[in-house]
Design a protein that fits this description.
It is a single chain. By secondary structure, the protein is mainly alpha-helical. The chain is built from 20 helices and two strands. Strands 1-2 form a two-stranded antiparallel sheet. A hairpin with a 2-residue loop joins strand 1 and strand 2.
Length: 380
């Protein structure tokens, strides 16, 4: 009986040792050896371990699993394209726009400086000078090459032509008033005296027969008034003015501007435009100064519509983007390049207790099998 118990215990211990060691080796052989072992040209069986040997297949299967069951388009839709996510994104963008764009702490010049345009006022003024100079030279060129008739529209020319008879009547009326005035009488008398004195003895004879210049002045004044009042005088002057005006229309406008200093005009014009623009001063205000309703408009109109369209477009392109990303290949490459040592460490770190239990279970089963074998041997 004692021999039987010793044999039974011995077989139980041997069976437990075999079961525990076998399970332990089986677990180790999942990962080890990491590389194939060769004796000359003969590869040792079961090298490398199961996972290193099948890593390519494992990587491929993991890639398929991720694409087909984990990171599917439907998963992305549920996680990233829900109404709740859209509202949170909208609120986030609204807050950022209000904090950054429509804040009173940053002026337009500050934004330009952040974008690398710190000298924008000087740059704008240089552009303004160039534009004004270009337009000014264009005007000068136009005045030099085109006639007044070309520059003036038909309506303006007709208006000017219609004003000639009015201007002639006004001149004649003023001339009549002038020659009837004491100043006009003195002018007539002086003209007569100058005329008679310039004729020498002939002038003296005329003065002797007709009397002094005062009597002649009255006669000349009367004749001048009659001349000014005649309809023919008005028609004659109107004709003369019209003819001269037509000649003037055919001449370039620059013919009448030769003595003008255009350089000074250009300089003053550029200075005036820059003073009116006041670029540097205007850039020292925040965006909200020029656009007070901009913040509310962005929050209530632009941002909601932009976010909604962005979500719709993103959802429409989701499957195409996932195909372009080729997640299956990415997962395969990552798993394939992952060091076996790290993978073993990761798996054993997570399942260390379970693997120990498998080893213990192997030992227990081995021991039980040893006991069963001992009993069989004893009874047989």
């Amino acid at each position: 009986m004692d021999n039987f118990l010793v044999t039974l215990i011995f077989m139980a211990v041997i069976g437990a040792a075999i079961g525990g060691v076998t399970n332990h080796l089986a677990i180790k052989m999942l990962f080890r050896p990491h590389e194939a072992i060769y004796i000359k040209n003969w590869r040792v069986p079961f090298t490398p371990g199961l996972i290193p040997k099948r890593r390519d297949e494992l990587a491929k299967q993991l890639g398929l699993t991720v694409v087909n069951y984990l990171l599917t388009p439907e998963t992305f839709r549920k996680k990233f394209f829900s109404k709740d996510i859209q509202e949170k994104v909208e609120q986030f963008v609204q807050a950022k726009v209000e904090e950054t764009v429509f804040t009173n702490d940053k002026t337009i010049q500050d934004w330009l400086s952040l974008a690398g345009f710190s000298n924008m006022p000087a740059t704008i003024e240089q552009k303004v000078d160039a534009i004004v100079e270009g337009q000014f030279e264009s005007v000068k060129n136009t005045l030099s090459t085109k006639s007044i008739r070309t520059l003036l529209s038909a309506d303006i020319q007709n208006t000017i032509d219609a004003k000639i008879p009015v201007a002639v009547d006004h001149i004649l009326e003023k001339g009549e008033d002038y020659f009837l005035s004491p100043e006009g009488e003195l002018t007539i008398k002086a003209m007569i005296d100058d005329f008679l004195s310039s004729k020498g003895s002939l002038g003296g004879m005329i003065n002797m027969f007709l009397g002094d210049s005062s009597s002649l002045m009255t006669k000349v004044q009367r004749e001048l008034i009659k001349f000014l009042q005649k309809p023919g005088t008005s028609a004659l002057l109107t004709k003369i003015f019209t003819q001269e005006l037509e000649k003037l229309k055919d001449r370039p406008a620059m013919d009448f501007l030769q003595d003008i200093r255009f350089e000074q005009i250009l300089s003053r014009l550029q200075t005036y435009v820059k003073e009116q623009l006041a670029v540097e001063e205007r850039l020292n205000y925040p965006i909200s100064h020029y656009w007070p309703e901009g913040n509310s408009w962005m929050k209530e109109t632009v941002i909601p519509q932009a976010i909604e369209k962005a979500f719709v477009k993103a959802e429409e392109k989701l499957e195409d983007v996932l195909k372009r990303l080729n997640l299956q290949e990415i997962v395969r490459e990552q798993v394939d390049s992952f060091p076996v040592e790290k993978l073993e460490e990761l798996v054993l770190g997570i399942s260390k207790r379970e693997f120990k239990m498998i080893t213990v279970l192997g030992a227990v089963l081995g021991g039980l099998i040893g006991i069963v074998q001992g009993l069989i041997v004893y009874f047989i």
